[in-house]
Amino acid sequence: MSARDWIDKDFYRELGVSSDASDADIKKAYRKLARELHPDANPGNTDAEARFKAVSEAYGVVGDPEKRKQYDEARSLFGGGFRPGGFGGAGGNFDFSDIFSQQQGSAGGGFGGLGDLFGNLFSRRGGGPSRPRRGADVETEVRIDFVEAVRGATVPLRLTSPATCETCHGSGARPGSTPQVCATCGGAGLVNRSQGAFAFSEPCRDCRGKGTVVTDPCPDCGGEGVATRTRPLTVRIPAGVEDEQRIRLAGQGEPGQHGAQAGDLYVRVHVTPHPVFGRNGDDLTLKVPVTFPELALGTTLTVPTLDSTVSLRVAPGTTSGRVLRVRGKGVARRDGRVGDLLVTLQVAVPATLDDDARAALEAYAAATADHDPRPDLTALVEKAR
Description:
Layout: H1 3-8, H2 11-15, H3 23-37, H4 46-62, H5 65-77, H6 97-100, H7 104-111, H8 114-121, E1 138-145, H9 146-151, E2 153-164, E3 180-181, E4 190-195, E5 198-203, E6 212-213, E7 226-237, E8 246-249, E9 265-272, E10 278-280, E11 283-290, H10 292-297, E12 299-304, E13 309-314, E14 323-326, E15 341-347, H11 355-367, H12 377-384
Parallel strand pairs: 1-9, 11-15
Antiparallel strand pairs: 2-7, 3-6, 4-5, 8-9, 10-11, 12-13, 14-15
Helix pairs in contact: 3-4, 7-8
């Protein structure tokens, strides 16, 4: 994509957000569109694939705080875009290459931070071949169950994204051929031209500032050196991963430009809740129903863990809601730390009673009629007033 295209496109509209949207809103919009337009979800749909590429391109700019700042500065300066042949502003025929082609001394001095932007757009400052640029980071999602999150898991992925063309290995040239030095700029990537009393250097339009021209393009990538492909990956999810946590795979993102390193792949993990166990950090939680006699008289309970079962001694007179700790039965971390199992005792009240049970409860109520379980409740309320 040329510098003119970089400025002329409305990346905010591509993502369906306003230009003052927060970083979180931009990420949310991108993730929603990426899921809807992903080639795996739209097999054979070329329109969806084109939109997927456009959305990824837009997020690569406005999803990066530094690039977004530069993009916003340029759009503010030039009124949101350019038209072929010149800027459609006050003059009507102002050629933006007059500014973009200036050396760092004039562009940087006149526009502050935009001097860096202009240098970044054309990947040079004062001449020379295009500079390497790190590839963009990529994010995908996986869902695992509760036990896999606690113990760790190996998850296979199929990632469809831009990647270095396997046929030409990123050169853009057909195998057996090599890019040729641009005859227009002599490999400098810049051409000089005069306008009135001024002389300017601007990126060569024939080689787009690269200094080389692919005369025999690769049939698979069309000379771009990058192709969209689906590749299998195996992701190791560490033990103890939490819901919404991201796993970073270095160098598995989009390929870099001109020999730069690739971006990273971030895998966002979604954990399906367990029907019995909960989690609080490294501790597992479990609610166990008990009867009133078990709490009043004491008992021994057999409760499940993720691996087996354990026996718990409930002392006589234990209250409902009491939490018992089973050490070492929680989440094990790679550093050796292991959480506990927290068992909460809850009195289970029967919905119906037969005659014998009702008579027994009535006899108990009569035997304990002199006991008031709320002796200080009213006094405490009055005192709080």
